[in-house]
């Protein structure tokens, strides 16, 4: 009986410690796709259909499409996420 009680207390302690640690861990921010990830066909521009992979970009597509051609090129994009570099071979801007 004493062993059972000790085991139950140990398991309870481990579970409580895990729960406390989980609460202290802040949630990760959503991943922002890079230009290259959104440009799935590799033509150097992002179509409205390709932009649907990122709901925030999709919702603001018309705002960013400065020339109204239905595509976003690198220069029309909002500030890129950290580490996103201009892909080689982009469509002329």
Automatic annotation (TrEMBL):
Protein name: EF-hand domain-containing protein
Signal peptide segment: 1-22
All copies of domain EF-hand, residue ranges: 34-50, 59-72
GO MF term (any one): calcium ion binding
Keywords in alphabetical order: Signal
Region annotated Disordered, chain positions: 22-45, 72-93
């Amino acid at each position: 009986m004493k062993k059972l009680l000790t085991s139950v207390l140990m398991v309870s302690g481990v579970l409580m410690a895990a729960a406390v640690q989980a609460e202290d861990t802040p949630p990760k921010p959503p991943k922002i796709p890079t230009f290259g990830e959104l440009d799935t066909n590799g033509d150097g521009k992002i179509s409205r259909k390709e932009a649907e992979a990122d709901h925030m970009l999709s919702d603001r597509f018309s705002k960013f499409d400065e020339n109204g051609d239905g595509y976003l090129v690198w220069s029309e994009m909002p500030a890129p996420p950290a580490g996103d570099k201009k892909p080689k071979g982009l469509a002329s801007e």
